[in-house]
Amino acid sequence: KEFGEISIKDLDQLARSSFPLCMRHLFDKYVFRRLFTFLLSLTLCVSLYAKGVGLRMEDALAFWKAEFSHKVGAERFDKEYAYSIRHNYGKEGKRTDYTPYSCQKIISSTPGVGDHHGCPYRHFSEENLRAALGRMGVGSRAMEDVVDKVRNRHYQLACTLTFEAVHSSSCDAGINHPNQYFSDSHKILQP
Ligand code: SF4
To answer: From CA 112, how far away is CA 170, in angstroms rounded?
Structure first.
């Protein structure tokens, strides 16, 4: 089944069932706990990802407005932040329709202190990674395999093993893009 557009009300459930660890971490950090700074990296990572999984621009704007306007005010949101979201969708500036980041690009990024973007397999401590994998429902045997891949710097393979563990299904192509993780998950969970 082709993956179509998703709506805001499905995001919470989809984040838990089908987001890769990198996006799940950002979603938890910024959306639910509301511990955020509206950094460019955040708008790029999260809103491009949301776009890639099929969130319509109007819904993305409504979603971020609901999250941010009580902090920054609706007027400031409309003036400053809505621009970056429309920009990501190619509706402002040079009107480039931006492509969501690939794993390679996320893995090679260098998150600063306090930033939450990046690939958790590369950028988390082993302790934090184990805790995050446990929250995703990865069992102890699979967790050792994942950690082993991470120690050997095979971050995408670690993500692939995580995918296979939480979906009880193989992922022969391997994970090379957060949006691919999402769409492959969606195909398995909602065939
Ligand atoms: Fe995200 Fe890719 Fe890292 Fe998986 S390997 S957590 S999809 S960046």
So the answer is: 34
